Amino acid sequence: MEIIKTDVAIVGAGGAGLRAAIALAEADPKLRIALVSKVYPMRSHTCAAEGGAAGVIKSDDSLDLHFNDTVGGGDWLCDQDAVEYFINEAPKELIQLEHWGCPWSREPNGSVAVRPFGGMKIKRTWFAADKSGFHILHTLFQTSLKYPSIQRFDEYYVTDLLVDDGRCQGFTALEIRSGEMRQFQAGAVIIAAGGAGRMFPFTTNGAIKTGDGMALAYRAGAPLKDMEFVQYHPTGLPNNGILLTEGCRGEGGILLNKHGRRYLQDYGMGPETPVGQPVLKTMELGPRDRLSQSFWHEQQKGNTVSTRWGDCVLLDMRHLGEKKINERLPFVRDLSISYLGMDPVKEPIPIRPVVHYCMGGIHTDIKAATPLPGLFAAGECACVSINGANRLGSNSLTELLVFGRRAALSAIDHLQSGLPASKDAVLAAQAQDSAGRIQALFDKNGGTESISGLRSEMMHTMEEGAGIYRTGEGLAATCEKLAELRQRYAGIEIHDKSRVYNTDLMQALELGSMLDCAEAAAVGARDRQESRGAHQRLDFTARDDQKFLKHSLAYYHPKEPARIEYLDVVITKSQPGVRDYSGAKK
Amino acid sequence: MSERQIQLEVLRYNPETDSEPRFQTYSVPCLNEWVVLDALNYVKDNLDTTLSYRWSCHMAVCGSCGMMVNGEPKLACKAFIHEYGDQIRVEPLANFPIERDLVTVVEDFIAKLASVKPYLIPKEDKPVSAGEFKQTPAQLLTFKQYTLCINCMLCYAACPQYGLVPEFIGPAAIALAHRYNQDSRDGGRDERQEVIASHEGVWECSFVGACSEVCPKHVDPAGALQQVKVASTIDWYKEHLMPWVKK
Ligand SMILES: Cc1cc2nc3c(=O)[nH]c(=O)nc-3n(C[C@H](O)[C@H](O)[C@H](O)COP(=O)(O)OP(=O)(O)OC[C@H]3O[C@@H](n4cnc5c(N)ncnc54)[C@H](O)[C@@H]3O)c2cc1C
Ligand code: SF4
Ligand code: FES
Prior knowledge:
Structural class of chain A: alpha/beta
Radius of gyration of chain B: 21 Å
CATH topology of the largest domain in chain B: Fumarate Reductase Iron-sulfur Protein, Chain B, domain 2
CATH superfamily of the largest domain in chain B: Alpha-helical ferredoxin
Order of helices and strands of chain B: EEHEEEEEHHHHHHHH
Bound molecules: flavin-adenine dinucleotide, iron/sulfur cluster, FE2/S2 (inorganic) cluster
CATH class of the domain at 235-352 in chain A: Alpha Beta
Number of helices of chain A: 15
Number of domains of chain B: 2
Largest interface: A-B, 62 and 63 residues
Distance between the termini of chain A: 65 Å
Oligomer: heterodimer
CATH superfamily of the domain at 235-352 in chain A: Succinate dehydrogenase/fumarate reductase flavoprotein, catalytic domain
Strand content of chain A: 15-25%
Number of strands of chain B: 7
CATH architecture of the domain at 235-352 in chain A: Alpha-Beta Complex
CATH architecture of the largest domain in chain B: Orthogonal Bundle
Strand order of the largest sheet of chain B: 2-1-5-3-4
Largest sheet of chain B: 5 strands, mixed
CATH topology of the domain at 235-352 in chain A: Flavocytochrome C3, Chain A, domain 1
Structural class of chain B: alpha+beta
CATH class of the largest domain in chain B: Mainly Alpha
Radius of gyration of chain A: 23 Å
Helix content of chain A: 25-40%
Number of strands of chain A: 22
């Protein structure tokens, strides 16, 4: 097997992975950097982010306010030391991107413009029209081309981490094009492999978001943290889950039920604000968890509009006018017209909540280090945690930058800590084992299960049991089902026997990742007997700070369900309080 | 929801077993609101797991799913079934070598993108602590369109010049160079212009405009090319006929 020796190897070339690679290259041009991704960097799902990235820049804003919004928005499950680091670094990172050419939207005087976003008390979301993630990703990718020390391995699928001597020393990857396995040997590994929204049937997440990075770390012994917290975005197109950004509401779009009522006022987010004059942190600019939950209640009450794609509410943007929509939300207009055949300039758009983001992920500390020495993680696959029980929109793009860079700096510290020589033979043997596992999967004939069949059973049980509202009973059933599916996974067969670009094999591996992540999420949700942020239990409706002001940590077992432990939340200056999104409060 | 049975004719090619590409037809029950990508996914999930193609976002922004649909370069996730008859033929993007089925080899394109120095070469150095560069909305507007390229390569598949002269650097790469050249914060135009002018570059373009026609993001690479040509011509005149005028 070919061995590629590098100093730092990065899994994933989305926003977080690219930012890490650039930080490494800038810190020391002599470092050998391997940037490994299962897709070409600009295909990474960061490209789909529309709304923007939060960071304090304007004079009416302050770091404290961003801190409070984030911690309250996360229902006090955020680690406050991490949040503090995050908000301090955020503006620097966004300016850095500006210096690299990111085409941020501007004020008439040439300074960057900011827009309102859900749960934020002040306008602080930097945006590039409604293609913010796209521009961030392309700016980072293009900037990365400046640095010859960043060696890219595009379309390589990472399969297993190599761990010896108690530290992570590389991984194996399948070169998709040839079907050959490669061994990457590295002093430090950074996982930046994105989220796992594809565990659910209805999601804004692209096909590549299958939780591979989380599964890699999890199987190697690093715990997954707070996996039970899955964010539903309130406004997805009902037929295919395509997102209409929160920017729609930030610019003044309103949500209506079938009676034309702005129903959010009935769920603690009122009183009603004037149409077209959005007020921050209330009504349509409440946080995502609350908005998605309100939808569920409206549906129970029969107040939703029934469409051929299921129950919906309406996102009305007509009053914004064509000019503003074209200027600020051109992509939204294009997506609505193309995929739904409806023009937001002319009619309200039916929408419904859609699985969007994983708050949970690989457990890291504030330095982006996992408990496994030599292994670092950043981006959506990681849980630092700055997002707590509910991420505020536009914090995540910034998080990629802040913690992508942080992971790079920590990796350098690790390299400089005087690492003992690696035992090449041990690593090579592990790599052989990993290759053997893939080969066995590839060679196997006479399977009893289909990949797409298992996948849709997994998605279905996740939606049933681990959706917007959950019950102990439903979650127990989902856990049981997932345990069954993990067993049945052994019965799959790869029908495609070609080495070259075998997507059958990749889908099988991705399904394996998703099943492990889903199981960790469901077990975590079953055991968390309280309601907090995006995790809402009909049988435990209140937040329980006595028992559950804690992160869950899921530990992997190949055959048994995840083992859950708890870890205290870091509280520095904000004691858990009431999340108040009523505009009446002064 | 109206459903229609489509005959999806897909080019198949497995370099390990096939000496040349062939077509395979699948009968796919399609909803009218589907895109071609949905039909391919239906095949992959229900009829034939061995079919290979690239996709991810399903919202026309990741640029993965470019392919020929009834002979035209399209994003499979934005090619609507209702715009086609009952027979749809899908092939890999023209002008690129086929790797496997609908997957093409794209290294050449990536190398061309990288060759034009597609990153900001700042006019003035400014530390992050000094804050952002100012750029008015009007200045942004001069290059914004060229930032919208999703690298889907449809324009290369449509370009007759790229088909004939594979060395041609091509529409998207030139549009990207132009994007940075036009950016008020950038001072790297001369460096980039050198690459473009020396490369099998702009001069090769016969200006048919096919690239702009197929571009799903309205980047108008043909327009960029034209502007780059004009700019290069002016450079040439300045250098050769009026050497006393500074560029
Ligand atoms: C539609 C949409 C809109 C959004 N809008 C916003 C917004 O406005 N503001 C905001 O802050 N956030 C937004 N988000 C969230 C945010 O975009 C994501 O959380 C973020 O982009 C994730 O970036 P990442 O770098 O962690 O991962 P990604 O960009 O998903 O990249 C993951 C990388 O890992 C690689 N990878 C994965 N598995 C493997 C493997 N096995 N082997 C090799 N490589 C692998 C992939 O190839 C890819 O390069 C949005 C999300 C979506 C889906
Ligand atoms: S210019 Fe248009 S067609 Fe060409 S790669 Fe870019 S987006 Fe695709
Ligand atoms: S799947 Fe992303 S552009 Fe078509």
